[in-house]
Design brief:
Layout (H helix, E strand, L loop, with lengths): L15 H4 L1 H18 L3 E9 L5 E2 L9 E2 L1 E7 L3 E9 L3 E7 L11 E5 L9 E6 L5 E7 L6 E9 L3 E2 L2 E2 L31
Antiparallel strand pairs: 1-10, 2-3, 4-9, 4-11, 4-12, 5-8, 5-10, 6-7, 6-9
Length: about 200
């Protein structure tokens, strides 16, 4: 779109409206520029992954197993509506919390959750954020014990910062050991010597 400078003085009246086309065009252009500017979205990106060393929690019920997760602090400088979308080869599940996230109480402080509103089994969260509170975006999976890399694309009226949050796991990993059975072999000779 071509930008024209806005004149200092524009006189509109019954005869001057059609005679001063550049003034009228500049005024209309200024209105569209303001609309375009107010609806612009800035994208921010965060990349990470879920691994067997990631913290785990019971996303729904512990009967389903452990879900690896990454908790990401989200902060914005400008209040407004923000969109968080995941991109991954794994089936991601997203949650956004206000103020804090406690993995032992996954529904406390929950603002929104989403599983498959995005493309290819990805989550998409559309949420209004304020500039003061701390938000936590939790990225996990639909199925338990799934690992893989992912990216989060956030768009909104301003950039989003994503400092990582460390939250302890609520489930303990225990290593089950099976007792070893020791095999002993003998070099005992199995023949008899016969004497006359």
């Amino acid at each position: 779109m071509k930008h024209f400078p806005i004149p200092n003085v524009c006189v509109f009246g019954p005869e001057s409206v059609f005679k001063n086309h550049s003034c009228l065009f500049t005024y209309i252009h200024f209105i569209f520029y303001q609309i375009e500017k107010s609806s612009a979205h800035i994208e921010s990106k965060y990349s990470s992954g879920l691994a067997t060393t990631s913290p785990t929690y019971c996303r729904d019920t512990c009967a389903k197993g452990d879900f690896y997760y990454v908790a990401i602090t989200v902060s914005v400088a400008t209040p407004g509506t923000y969109l968080f979308s995941s991109k991954s080869d794994i089936d991601t599940y997203g949650y956004i919390y206000m103020n804090s996230f406690d993995p032992s109480k996954p529904h406390q402080n929950l603002l929104q959750e989403n599983n498959d509103s995005g493309e290819k089994k990805q989550f998409k969260l559309k949420v209004h954020l304020k500039s003061g509170p701390k938000y936590i975006l939790v990225t996990t999976t639909s199925s338990p014990n799934v690992t893989g890399s992912f990216s989060i694309i956030a768009s909104g009226p301003t950039s989003v910062s994503f400092p990582r949050t460390t939250i302890p796991s609520t489930t303990k990993k225990t290593k089950t050991t099976t007792p070893k059975t020791t095999r002993r072999t003998s070099k005992y000779s199995n023949y008899l010597t016969v004497f006359d």
